[in-house]
Amino acid sequence: MKSIKIHPIGIIHSPFTIPEGTPIQPGGSTAAGEIEIFDEYLEGLTDLEGFSHIIVLFHFHKIEQEKLIVKPYMDSVFHGIFSTRSPARPNRIGFSIVRLDKITGNKLFVRNLDMLDETPVIDIKPFVPSMDFFEVEKTGWLEDKVHRHKTTKDDGRFI
């Protein structure tokens, strides 16, 4: 199989400098920050200011090892990595939907951050509810726990 090469297009400037205490999902965060886009990708921001929310794909750069079985933040039992949103993933790729307040030059001013400062950004896409959201029938082991995402914080277990 051919290798995959991914290069950062920018970096996140966040108030969170250590994992402990960082929100575990954007829906549980009111934190504001900036996404700095590198100059060679600046033209790609054309027309993005027309969207109120964006999907940010990023690299979990502080994760030291991958795990296929994890005890996630909102449960006391182990689950397979692909049934969780744990950062200890094989490719360490994360995503968050954040509010885009404004763009000034190469800086995107955003809210609802759940990423650490200096997190590398892999890609940005506009969030469009009619394209990105639909009703679901089941949410697996999270069914009776999902309400806790707004108050649960990172405890450092995955670094």
| Helix count, DSSP H or I runs of 4 or more residues | 1
User: What is the string of SSEs from the N terminus onward?
Assistant: EEEEEEEEH
Radius of gyration: 16 Å
* The named CATH superfamily: YaeB-like
Unreliable segments (pLDDT under 50, ≥5 consecutive)?
none
How many runs of DSSP E, i.e. beta strands? 8
Q: What share of residues is helical?
A: under 10%
Large-scale geometry: globular
Mean pLDDT: 89
Portion in beta strands = 25-35%
**Strand order within the widest sheet?**
1-2-7-6-3-8
Which CATH first-tier class would you pick?
Mainly Beta
Ends distance: 30 Å
Q: What class do helices, strands and sheet pairing give?
A: mainly beta
Number of domains: 1
Structure commentary:
The protein is an all-beta fold and about 160 residues long. The chain has one domain: YaeB-like (Elongation Factor Tu (Ef-tu), domain 3, Beta Barrel), CATH 2.40.30. Helices cover about 5% and strands about 30% of the residues. The chain has 1 helix and 8 strands; from the N terminus they run ββββββββα. The strands form 2 sheets. Strands 1-2-7-6-3-8 form a 6-stranded antiparallel β-barrel. A two-stranded antiparallel ribbon has the order 4-5. β4 and β5 form a beta hairpin. The radius of gyration is 16 Å and the shape is globular. It starts with 9 loop residues before the first strand and ends in a 27-residue tail after the last helix. The mean pLDDT is about 90.
Which features would summarize this protein structure in a list?
mainly beta, 1 helix, 159 residues, Elongation Factor Tu (Ef-tu), domain 3, two-stranded antiparallel sheet, globular, single chain
